[in-house]
Amino acid sequence: MMGSQTQSQLHVVDFTDATMKPGTDAWLSACTLVRSALEDNGCFVARYDSIGKDLCDSVVSAIEQLFSLPLETKRQKTCDKPFHGYLGQVSWIPLFESLGIDDPLTLQGCQKFTHIMWPQGNHRFCESINEYAKLLAELDHMAKRMVFESYGVDIKGCERMIKSSDYLLRCIKYRTPEMDEKDTGLDSHTDLTIVSIVHQLNHLNGLEIKLKDEEWIGVDASSSLFVVMAGDALNVWSNGRIRPCEHRVTMNAKKTRYSMGLFSFSGDKNMQIPDELVNEQHPLLYKPIFDHYDYLRFYDKEKIKEPYSRIKAYCGISALY
Ligand SMILES: O=C(O)CCC(=O)C(=O)O
Ligand SMILES: [Fe+2]
């Protein structure tokens, strides 16, 4: 639970407080907390109860149904973007399997994916996934507003970032390891996203975060706890101030584990580092214009694992001053 050993070192931001609206003291102190959490560890835990248990339960059954489809069905191409499709049957992470739903915030996006998986239709899948993704996106938007506000960056830039973002809902399954298998669900990595929100959907722990002091800690699973993580693109946007969150999954559960990730990418080819984030103490670290899909293709080609080396190799500049 909340105060347990494992999680106590992560910052927890409470979004269940209905009085926490922009401009209030509660909002301002949450902004400060979000900024230090992202600068320290690249993530925070959001307590957020808008999704509710019933919707969670419907999403769990929707996802079980999805993964029980034949492999040839799951492997179909659903989208042209890099890293948006089926991932699984990978020799070094044999427990992991995942499907991405592109544009899940619109009903059309969900319908398109549903139709490819179930040509005969699956209304319940489509509706519950769309509902779930939209609620997750509200958390994504609030978190981004808090980031902009905490740095004093013009909030119009945040509206632009949100409007021009592409969203991907990743549905993830981990089977239990067999006797001779390791418990690695997913190796240590940072996401290539702007922000990723991870939900341990069927209440099974496994997600671990690397803190700034290099210590790994587990995050407790609950229907109302979400991990908001900075991806590589937010590190670039923040001119290096926000750490991209290093995380991994250890499959310690005795049952199949399902998790969901709402990933955001900049659909605008020209994501810019705000002027407010560049000054004498923080000289420009990266080329100021970032093309997110080009970065994904770069990663696909170069496969550089270490996040800072990867970001620097893609868009780093040597000190200008
Ligand atoms: O399953 C999880 O808890 C995390 C998944 C993850 O890190 C990813 O898909 O990038
Ligand atoms: Fe990840």
Outline the structure in words.
The chain is of the alpha+beta class. It has a single domain (6-320), classed as B-lactam Antibiotic, Isopenicillin N Synthase, Chain (Jelly Rolls, Sandwich), CATH 2.60.120.330. The chain contains 9 helices and 14 strands. It has helices spanning 25-40, 52-67, 71-74, 107-117, 123-150, 155-163, 232-237, 292-302, 307-315; strands at residues 12-14, 43-47, 87-88, 96-102, 165-174, 184-189, 195-199, 207-210, 216-218, 225-230, 247-250, 257-266, 271-272, 289-290. It has an 8-stranded mixed sheet with strand order 1-2-10-7-12-5-4-3. The longest helix has 28 residues, at 123-150. The chain is globular. It starts with 11 loop residues before the first strand and ends in a 6-residue tail after the last helix. Residues 1-5 have low confidence and may be disordered. Probable 2-oxoglutarate-dependent dioxygenase that may be involved in glucosinolates biosynthesis. May play a role in the production of aliphatic glucosinolates.
